[in-house]
TrEMBL record:
The keyword Cytoplasm does not apply. The lineage of its organism: Eukaryota, Fungi, Dikarya, Ascomycota, Pezizomycotina. Transmembrane segments: none annotated. It comes from the Eukaryota. This is CENP-V/GFA domain-containing protein.
C-alpha cells in the first residue's frame, strides 16, 4: 500500500448509538497520553484531519466534557460511556480513540508516548471519604482511593497489596474491557466505599448482571457493579477460577490515585480466559 492510498475504517461506541468512519492511510501507530483524563479513560489516539472523519447517517449524539480551563472537547457516548474522540473548536484536526475502531490489531501498532501531564497546571486530586472502610479491622490490607476526572464519583477500598503478585489485577479481552482499556482489581464488596453513585450511569450488556458504571459528567469508567452475582445459567459459562471474584466490586484501577503503573503486575487474558458472559 502506497503512502497516498487511503483506507476506510469503521468504528463505534460499545452500544452502537454512535458510529463513524475514518478514511486515512493505513493505521500503523497511535498515541498514548499520560494526562489525568486520557489516563483515566485509557485513550489510544489517532490524529486526523476533520475532513477524514464522518459520522454515520442517523447516528446519535455524543456527550461533551471539557476540563476546567481547557479548550478541548472530549466526546463520549452517554449510554455506554465510550470515549470516542476529542476536538478543539476552530482547529482543522481532531483525535479519534483507536479503541473504538473495528478490525484493528491494536497490539501490532506502534505506541507513541505523549507527555500531556506536563502541559498546563498540574491536575489536583479530590479528597475521598474513607470513614466506612476505616472501621474495618483488616491487618495487612492497604487502603486505596480514587475518583473520576471531575470528582463527582469517588471510590475507596481495602485490599491486599496491589503490587503483590498474588493479588489479581487483570486487563480482560472482552469487548467493553477493550474499548474502555479497563485494568481491574477485585476488592470485596464489604471492603468498599463509593460516594456519588447517583452521579453514575449504569450500562448493561449481554446477560445484564453487571452494571458498568461511568460518571455522567466526565464519562470516566469507574467500576463494574456485580450486584448479587450472575444467575445460574451465566455462572455455568464462566471459568471456575473466576467464581470467587463474581461477587466482588471490580474497580477500574485507572481511577485510583498514586499507583506506580510500572510496578503493577497486570495479567493480560488471552481469548477464552475471561468472564465473557456479562
Amino acid at each position: 500500500m502506497s503512502e497516498e492510498e487511503l483506507k476506510t475504517y469503521h468504528g463505534s461506541c460499545h452500544c452502537g448509538n454512535f458510529a463513524f468512519t475514518v478514511t486515512v492511510p493505513e493505521i500503523k501507530s497511535g498515541a498514548r497520553c499520560n494526562c489525568s483524563l486520557c489516563h483515566r479513560k485509557g485513550y489510544f489516539w489517532l490524529k486526523i484531519g476533520s475532513e477524514q472523519f464522518k459520522a454515520d447517517e442517523g447516528t446519535g449524539e455524543l456527550a461533551c466534557y471539557q476540563v476546567s480551563g481547557g479548550c478541548n472537547r472530549h466526546l463520549f457516548c452517554a449510554t455506554c460511556g465510550t470515549g470516542v474522540m476529542a476536538e478543539k473548536p476552530g482547529e482543522p484536526f481532531m483525535v479519534v480513540n483507536l479503541n473504538t475502531v473495528k478490525d484493528l490489531d491494536r497490539k501490532a501498532l506502534e505506541v507513541k508516548a505523549f507527555d500531556g501531564a506536563s502541559i498546563g497546571e498540574p491536575y489536583k486530586t479530590f479528597d475521598v471519604p474513607t470513614d466506612v472502610i476505616d472501621a474495618l479491622d483488616l491487618p495487612g490490607y492497604k487502603t486505596y482511593t480514587g475518583h473520576c476526572h471531575c470528582g463527582d464519583v469517588k471510590v475507596a477500598f481495602k485490599s491486599p497489596d496491589l503490587y503483590d503478585p498474588n493479588t489479581f489485577v487483570v486487563s480482560d479481552n472482552c469487548s467493553i474491557c477493550t474499548i474502555h482499556a479497563y485494568v481491574i482489581a477485585y476488592p470485596e464488596r464489604n471492603h468498599y466505599q463509593i460516594t456519588g453513585t447517583e452521579n453514575t450511569t449504569a450500562y448493561f450488556m449481554g446477560d445484564k448482571w453487571i452494571a458498568h458504571r461511568f460518571c455522567k459528567r466526565c464519562g470516566t469508567p469507574v467500576n463494574l457493579d456485580t450486584q448479587t452475582g450472575p444467575p445460574a445459567h451465566v455462572l455455568a459459562k464462566i471459568p471456575e477460577f473466576y467464581h470467587p471474584r463474581l461477587k466482588a466490586y471490580p474497580t477500574n484501577l485507572r481511577v485510583i490515585n498514586g499507583l506506580d503503573w510500572k510496578e503493577l503486575g497486570i495479567n493480560y487474558l488471552a481469548p477464552g480466559e475471561g468472564a465473557d458472559a456479562n
